[in-house]
Amino acid sequence: MFNRQKIRSFEDKIGIWFSMFFCKLASLFVNKDRLLIKGFYKNTKQVVKKYNLNQIQIYPQIHANLALPKTYDYIHEEFSHTEVIFPEETVVQISAARVYGWEGLLVLPDNMGVLDVNIMGNAYKSLKKIGKVAAPFYLEGNSVFLCTNWSNFYYHWIIDLLPKLHLLQKSGLQVNHYIVNGIMHDFQRQALDLAGIPKDKIIETEKFLNIKCENLIVPSQPGYMGFCPKWACDYLKELLAGDIADSSPINIYISRSKASQRKILNEDEVFEFLSEKNFHRVYLEELLLKDQIKLFKNARMIIAPHGSGLTNIVFSNSGTKLVEIFSPTYMEPCYWRLANALELDYSYILGRENVENHNIIVDIEKLKNILEK
Q1: Which of 22, 34, 234, 254 gets the most CB atoms within 10 Å of its CB?
Q2: CATH architecture of structural domain 244-372
Q3: What are the two backbone dihedrals, phi and then psi, of residue 292, each rounded to the nearest 5 degrees?
Q4: What per-residue confidence (pLDDT) applies to 250?
């Protein structure tokens, strides 16, 4: 089986290399005034050093060790990397930087991008940005750059975007505007409301957005994509679940029967067994964000096929038992990593293979054994 992390890394490197090559080639034939972006710095450190920018360190490098998951299946290679070194977390201030387009492409005053800000190879989208762009709208005061990749997915909005507010808070800098990716879903607006960000201070990216910021505040990516540090988990729990009262603990099964993929094909059989264990079946798409937070905060046991709804384990208490169900054709360890940071009791089982849409048939005996483990 292919290692998805390696495939992603390869795609990102190709995307970054092609972007840099294309920008250099285009600069030979296109007037530089018609190039939105002419190249990329490898990382923020390089920019800070070159332009002597104000950089505030919030957290140093953090070393962490992950506990292997419990399972009656084999330990998949995706779960074998148990040592993590989280990068230092910083906040940088940049004068006269621009934010462009739907992706929220950060453009420095010298028309250069920064690869660790527009992470995961999203820089390749700059290829479409050649031609005369509209004059930028000037934004006075302090603006914080909160844009992140794949922001329309629940996991990335909650885990990758919101913890940047903590870095901002720790920096002590005051903010007049919050620049976020264009809002496509109710949960995005609900999360910003729960975080206490005033609606009149939010600026959403859009297709032809071109704003020039008097002072742009750029928090670093919290951890790595798919690797969330403990400080971010603690912040999210306090920010979004701190005011939610405890109630009687419950056991929950998260259904994906309304999803397009990774569904449990024998869900009725699975839930017939789980109902005997006092589990409640939950359809998260029917709940408001605050109700999802309350549900997971008071969960004692959680069983679910892999999906974005498991992002909500960030609100669960340490020691909560989590059983994640995978298709053998799709393994993604992000919730195992998250469960480690949260000190949850994590297990997984593999369903029987169903290639179409990574759907799953659960072996009830496996499920029974893992619950008793």
Answers
A1: 254
A2: 3-Layer(aba) Sandwich (3.40)
A3: -65, -40
A4: 95
